[in-house]
Amino acid sequence: MSDNLPACPACSGTFTYEMGALLVCPECGHEWSASSDAAAEEGRVVRDAVGNVLADGDTVTVVKALKVKGSPSGIKAGTKVRNIRLVDGVDGHDIDCRIDGFGAMQLKSAVVKKA
Q1: For residue 32, which of 13, 10, 3, 2 has the smallest C-alpha distance?
Q2: What DSSP line would sit under 44-112, residue for residue?
Q3: CA–CA gap between residue 92 and residue 86 (Å, rounded)
Q4: pLDDT at residue 80 above 80?
Q5: Does residue 36 contact residue 66 with C-beta atoms inside 8 Å?
Q6: How many CA atoms lie within 13 A of 54 on its CB side?
Q7: Surface-to-core class of residue 107, CB atoms within 10 Å of its CB (0-12 exposed, 13-18 middle, 19+ buried)
Q8: Maximum CA extent, the chain
Q9: Contacts of 65 (CB under 8 A, 6+ apart)
């Protein structure tokens, strides 16, 4: 109801109000904390398969075997990937990296964990 409160992230309703430490949308009933809303404004957060936050330059480990088009073997689970770069990729591929023996490629953050 106040002009300085953010719109609801679930339904984009503009009638949000504060209830203690939470923000509430009366239109859809969604509740969220103001601190998580501030974190969302800072930028996109990319998490690995177990929930760790990833950053540019991190080293990650592939958690499951991946098929690679044009390669007979693919990428084995346990392969370390160094110096990743986070990007806004196509189809959920949000890690840009270079893997020894395969070259440059994009990975989904759901198939890696922080090393």
Answers
A1: 10
A2: ---B-TTSPBP-TT--EEE-S-B--TT-SS-BPTT-EE-S-EE---GGGEEEEEEETTTEEEEEEGGGE
A3: 11
A4: yes
A5: no
A6: 32
A7: buried
A8: 60
A9: 74, 75, 76, 77
Helix, strand, or coil (residue 31)? strand
Tokens of residue 2, six digits: 């106040």
* Whole-prediction pTM: 0.61
The 10s digit of each residue's pLDDT in 63-76 is 999 999 888 889 99
Q: What is the rounded CA–CA span in Å between residue 113 and residue 51?
A: 8
How far apart CA 61 and CA 42 sit, in angstroms, is 27
Structure tokens at 50: 């177990």
Of 74, 73, 77, nearest to 112 by C-alpha is 77
Hunting for tokens 């392969």 — which residue is that?
A: 79
Please give the structure tokens belonging to residue 24. 């509430």
CA nearest to 71, candidates 113, 112, 110, 100: 100
First and final C-alpha spacing in the chain? 45
